[in-house]
């Protein structure tokens, strides 16, 4: 049996791990968040800093703080722009929500 391709594996949340850059694939809308780290009190390792886990949505790591669709290959720019605008209305996750999203992104 051939090795499973990465985009065919199933994540715990049922989403594809990778999308092909094809017009019939789902829109590829991205956002990035900042996770703040600080040096531990004893100076030996990094720890997650308080602003990451204070319960507020995380800060965007993108220069204009808007979702990006630069890599979408849909060929339907109006649909893609509308979906990107909708994504910008969805609050970014909190630190606790990000922890769940990371867990859900792992393969089953």
What's the arrangement of secondary structure elements?
Blueprint (H helix, E strand, L loop, with lengths): L36 E3 L6 E3 L28 H12 L6 H11 L3
Antiparallel strand pairs: 1-2
Description:
By secondary structure, this protein is mainly alpha-helical. It contains two helices and two strands. It has a two-stranded antiparallel ribbon. A hairpin with a 6-residue loop joins strand 1 (37-39) and strand 2 (46-48). The longest helix has 12 residues, at 77-88.
Shape label: globular
Domain count: the total is: 1
Question: Major sheet: order of its strands?
Answer: 1-2
Distance between the termini: 20 Å
- Mean pLDDT score, rounded? 89
What is the rounded Rg? 17 Å
- Range of strand content: 5-15%
The SSE order reads EEHH
Number of helices: 2
Q: What helical percentage do the residues reach?
A: 10-25%
In short:
With 108 residues, the chain is mainly α. It has one domain (23-105).
Summary keywords:
108 residues; mainly alpha; two-stranded antiparallel sheet; 2 helices; 2 strands; disordered N terminus
């Amino acid at each position: 049996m051939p090795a499973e391709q990465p985009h065919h594996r199933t994540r715990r949340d049922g989403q594809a791990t990778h999308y092909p850059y094809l017009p019939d694939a789902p829109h590829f809308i991205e956002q990035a968040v900042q996770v703040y780290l600080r040096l531990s009190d004893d100076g030996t390792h990094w720890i997650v800093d308080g602003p990451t886990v204070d319960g507020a949505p995380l800060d965007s790591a993108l220069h204009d703080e808007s979702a990006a669709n630069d890599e979408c290959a849909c060929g339907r720019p109006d649909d893609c722009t509308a979906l990107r605008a909708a994504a910008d209305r969805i609050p970014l996750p909190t630190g606790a929500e990000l922890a769940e999203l990371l867990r859900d992104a792992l393969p089953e």
